[in-house]
Amino acid sequence: xxxxxxxxxxxxxxxxxxxxxxxxxxxxxxxxxxxxxxxxxxxxxxxxxxxxxxxxxxxxxxxxxxxxxxxxxxxxxxxxxxxxxxxxxxxxxxxxxxxxxxxxxxxxxxxxxxxxxxxxxxxxxxxxxxxxxxxxxxxxxxxxxxxxxxxxxxxxxxxxxxxxxxxxxxxxxxxxxxxxxxxxxxxxxxxxxxxxxxxxxxxxxxxxxxxxxxxxxxxxxxxxxxxxxxxxxxxxxxxxxxxxxxxxxxxxxxxxxxxxxxxxxxxxxxxxxxxxxxxxxxxxxxxxxxxxxxxxxxxxxxxxxxxxxxxxxxxxxxxxxxxxxxxxxxxxxxxxxxxxxxxx
Length: 344
Prior knowledge:
Elements: H1 2-20, E1 31-36, H2 43-54, E2 64-69, H3 76-84, E3 92-95, H4 103-106, E4 117-121, E5 127-132, H5 140-145, E6 148-151, H6 158-170, E7 174-178, H7 183-192, E8 197-201, H8 202-206, E9 218-224, H9 239-242, H10 248-262, E10 266-268, H11 274-288, H12 291-299, E11 307-308, H13 309-322, H14 325-336, E12 341-342
Parallel strand pairs: 1-2, 1-3, 6-7, 6-8, 7-12
Antiparallel strand pairs: 3-10, 4-10, 4-11, 5-8, 5-9
Helix pairs in contact: 6-10, 6-14, 10-13
């Protein structure tokens, strides 16, 4: 019965599409919801807000746009919604939470990122491990010698996957505290001393806490992902340089790093008609390189390092191709299934 309902729904979408999509006003009178895979207060919300406020201007028919937050499980809740519940007609667009793309490799989740219809990403960002200045942690060796606490949203998030990987490959002793609802709440946790630090993007601070890095209120001890020329990253060790080429540690990093190379990527559900995807993808690509959109990004103090849909598909394919059974088993054993510590 459920399969029949899904089939009927798909037929209705295709029927509606075939009667309208030939016209340039397919989206006229419609509203597009841009879904944030986290709570508010962080730069995931900033990027989604930037897209929500600009995207409609580049879509034929000029649809209205709304923004919606769906936090949970480090972005896996949003991705599961998009795969199984969201309408397949182009009216709901979501941003993937970096980390969620590779989660299906090590855990059973109700989505497959390879089936999403990618539109593009405004940025692929440099990330790292940061500690609040009052704890006196300024070097990687210090977190290898003693246990520290790291705030995180959920198990599938970039902010917990990479600390787990770093614990496994470099012998650090980061205890991950799960359950915070978005970047804003993570920052409050660190600032108030609930936890000692967090994994974050450099622009995760410049976008919402612009004084933290220049005033050295938050200190980076290790960087990973795309490299950055930001002054705060100068002299900070990079994970890519600490792992032996060809080693299992490096192979795991290369697979997981695909999440960060893909970046703050937006997509529509599998099953969305190809011509609708084409309309949205063209509009999104135009927006990415539009001067007014770039100006808005600069005003919000976040990165603009766009990744096109074609590049995203290539990166995801390469990442999954590199995830051999041997590598996946190692990720499951060493990164994928650690017992969680929940915040009190």
